[in-house]
């Protein structure tokens, strides 16, 4: 039977390894759009980068409501869904800093600077989502 994760457990779960988040944003017609993102937790914020002209970038500029799902698709199956509102920044120094930190998680320290330089440029956005609601379950199939 599924069990609720503690605050400490879900934070460790979403921060473990290179799990991507599946980010859901709201399209102009109200329908959902889902895309994978690399991300980090920073306190009570989820932080990621995206292109200003991507579907998710345009959606976030218009309507900041998001949900991010992170899961383990191996038995006994665990998942975390984080909901909140996005705040967008185009500050290049902060964007490059966070793009480099995020890249270190997903690509390793040796490639982080190159990815930070690639993703911390004009036309990209730094997105912070203040976490307002958490649904975190472990051992769903037990």
From TrEMBL:
Keywords: Oxidoreductase. Residues 7-135 form the Pyridoxamine 5'-phosphate oxidase N-terminal domain. The keyword Oxidoreductase applies. It comes from the Bacteria. This is PPOX class F420-dependent enzyme. GO terms for cellular component: cytosol. InterPro entries: F420-binding_dom_put (IPR019920), F420H2_bilvrd_red/Heme_oxyg (IPR052019), Pyridox_Oxase_N (IPR011576), Split_barrel_FMN-bd (IPR012349). It comes from Streptomyces phaeoluteigriseus. Pfam families: PNPOx_N. GO terms for molecular function: coenzyme F420 binding; oxidoreductase activity, acting on the CH-CH group of donors. The keyword Oxidoreductase applies. NCBIfam families: Rv1155_F420. SUPFAM superfamilies: FMN-binding split barrel.
